[in-house]
What we know:
This protein has 622 residues and is of the alpha+beta class. It has 3 domains: 3-207, 4-Layer Sandwich (Aldehyde Ferredoxin Oxidoreductase,  A, domain 1), CATH 3.60.9; 239-400, Aldehyde Ferredoxin Oxidoreductase Protein, subunit A, domain 2, CATH 1.10.569.10; 418-617, Aldehyde Ferredoxin Oxidoreductase Protein, subunit A, domain 3 (Orthogonal Bundle), CATH 1.10.599.10. Helices cover 42% and strands 14% of the residues. The strands form 6 sheets. The chain has a 6-stranded mixed β-sheet, with helices on both faces. β2 (10-15) and β3 form a beta hairpin. It is globular, with a radius of gyration of 23 Å. 59% of the residues are buried.
Amino acid sequence: METIKAVNNKVLDINLSSGKSIAIPLSQSVRREYLGGKGLALKLLYDNIRPGIDPLSPDNILVVMTGPTAGTPSPAGGRFAVMCKSPLTGIFASSYVGGKFGISLKKAGYDGIMVRGKSDRPVYIRIDNGDVSIQDAAALWGMDTYEFQEARKDDGDWMVIGPAGENRVRFAVIASDKRVAGRCGMGAVMGSKNLKGIVAKGNRKIAVADPDGFKKALKVAQKKIIAHDNTGRRLRELGTPQNVRAFGSAHIMPVRNFNKSKFDKMERISAEKIRDQHTVKNQGCPGCPIKCGRIGNYKNKELVSPEYETIALMGANLLIGDLNDIAFWNDRLNRLGLDSISTGGVIGFAMELTEKGMLKSDLKFGDAENIEKTIEDIAYRRGLGDELADGVRRLSKKYGGEYFACHVKGLEVAGYDPRGCTGQGLGYATANSGATHLSGSTHAIETDPLGGGEKSYLSPHGTKGKAHFVKFLQDIMEMTNSSIFCLQTQYPFLEENFAYKYTPKPILRFVMRNLPAIAVATSDISDYCALLSGVLGYKIGRKELYRVGERAFNLERYMNCREGIGRKDDTLPRRILEETGEKGWAPVRLDRMLKKYYRLRGWDTNGRPKEKTMDKLGIPYQ
Length: 622
């Protein structure tokens, strides 16, 4: 049996139009600069795709990329990245998913895949111990993601689309096991290529390059994960729905299409309600010690319990306070292959359009009756669902309501209202993908569990320290998404280090709020460095590793600038900027934060990376 030392340094390049595939080698210099995952996916797109292409045309390239940690005992490292030009936003975007596919792909001999062109018929790609073939999928077209994977589980591990992807819903997802690459319409790109799925099977053994160094780093990392209250207790006990009570109380959870700051039925959809009234068992990504996922009993049926974002956007955002309804909708969304955040966002927007007499529909806030049908109609592009399937931005251009159309750069706003955590507003405005909670997410350090600001590291309102921490957290996220580590590791790895853990909280708050440059510069990412050094076999220091994230963020921004993105796009929905009268809300002083942020980034006044910034990061202008 062949043994892989962490990585294969090979990417599979498949052209569905010609039916041909080749293996592309990855150089050590490119590996070192971009690591894997998001970073390498970006580099491949930058080198292979031209600006201005239609995301749903054969010219788009779908990149699937594992990280160096995939298949190793590294904590929470089994996820893989999917990247392309988004059919929802028209700019470059990425999404991430757990499941077993990434590990099996690496065991089959490849670190990643580039899919080009378009098949003239429905197909799937089979990768079996290095051998690649394109198989007919006509009989499989139309199957939902669970049904498909169950029927073909003996073939290997899958990444697949459901009917929503087949019908090119602009926010269709890609599923692997019961996890999804949820945002920006990756499933629609697969559907546009007539690609139902990719299956991988391999028997190669994955080993780390420095076993002794890795073993030592892993022992420290696992100890910190167990010791930290979030990863060692709260996520295991409550999962991500723990955020319902925390952020609902802090006036951050979206309510009534981001029109209100408090949901009266919050407790009915809380994590504690799931724990106490729905029998659950933990589940997680392969090899993950956290196990934050849940299987719940809803009306005597075992279903995947909804995550916080689904509860927020399909629950509070629509004024729905019944967990059984939300869990059943979540099951339909996963099976059909729809992003729950964008689905909840577009349904909420349609409800308000209807309420204001701007759209004729049966959708109404607080009324669950027509939501399941609407979900089905979106996936199959039937009736009004055909228009909802194009997202909030396109719907607002047709029917009006752009004032309360809650999206950034075409991506529906995730489950954190910036008026209760203003740094999050800067994170949304500058995130490369649009309004994602997975880029520069400051909400966790702008709030405390009781919902006040006096115990939070940064004030929930105002601008102090926000630009520094948004930039820092964006770069850290790009680094973890290139490695790949799960974002949940940021809590124990950053907060369980000696200086952070034992500095009195009032002093820590003072430094973070008033001396953010010092706070950022002294943040300890040594656990990531040690784990990756053990995996790859060469020493990776803090500066080099942080630079990986900074490089990836700036490269994607530059690629988006070539698509027309600039200062005009780094904004928030007018409702969020102008309506601030609810309890717990404050104005998001975006212009003030943006000016400082651009300076810290080394961008010009239009938000474009300067040439000297690109030179510093080793990115050639094209």
